[in-house]
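Q: What would this chain look like folded?
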Amino acid sequence: MPLSHGRPYLAIPGPSVIPDRVLQAMHQPAPEIHGGAMVGLLESLLPDLRAVARTKHKVAMYIANGHGAWEASVANCLSRGDRILSLATGRFGHGWAETAAAMGVDVEVMDFGKRSPVDLARVAERLADDKAHQIKAVTLVHVDTATSVRNDVAGVRAALDDAGHPALLMVDCIASLACDRFEMDDWGVDVMVSACQKGLMVPPGMGFVYFGPRAEEARARADLVTQYWDWRMRADPDQFYQYFWGTAPTHHLFGLRTALDMLVHEEGIEAAWARHETLARAVWAAIEAWGQDGPMDLNVADPACRSHAVTSVRVGAPQGTALREWLSDVAGVTLGIGLGMAEPDDPAWHGFFRIAHMGHVNAHMVLGALGTIEAGLAALDIPHGAGALEAAARVVAGASGR
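A: My prediction, written as structure tokens:
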């Protein structure tokens, strides 16, 4: 008997749960797009977007998803034949590299697997070897959505500085922005890309590229950029339409204004980071308890290297797919697929799932999802240890006393 009638819970790592207030803000007639209130609304977004990224630098907005933000970042910083070093800890590290290669960039991928963060010693060694400074940029995904590996951005900047290497540091924060601590300026990031559909709690459709002075200098030399992707006019427009080089995504802007009100002005970014950390630890505690007497295992062993936005789980084939289907069909909870953990035609592909805890989530949502997972494990006779829900509840209870 299905018990899924009611409000569904989308526990996938993007699009994340959209707050009712954001949806309501978007539910209004189309506005004038050449002036009027839209001008002030859009300009009000910029300081709050900077606050979320902890930067004083510029931000360009695009009608695009994260892949579009990747392309915009490459187009504005690089030329055909330039070499970049792409540090990969999952599918999305490789994806950004593939985007650059398709645009004519010479890409060197340093792959660290699917369960471990970037090895800073290996990066430092490679940068030291590049005495001619052929590497023009280092790309890094802060949190790879597929593996839930969280990388040390400041550590990569230190490796660049210690080597005296002038390469740009370009960071993908699509999964991590507003969920995991990110300090663009303090960590010495030259370019950061993100999108609206995860920690920013807005339906998919907007991409963001933040860039500092060294990236602006690179733009002057880049030969890949086209008029549409050029960030110069978008960041310093002469006319309103140039923010988006055409019609603005008006209703996304309405939603984004409300989302930033909630995130920056009501909760505060530090509190949002702390909330995500607590909810992540609750998920980890449950999975560790289940794994005491069964096949379930966290993909990332070291808690210091785990995302606070999404958790990738190994449970063995075919249990991953079976569990996801049971939760969706019977309980109304949708978990993420094991993206990039195995090829889709490999039976091992069915041995993974992901739990998102990003954006508009709170304790009862996460604890409810964990409760339905436990029900699914029992219904499918998947071996698992006891005490998972109690372990998760203790994490939440402990945080509430801070």
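The longest strand covers residues 135-141.
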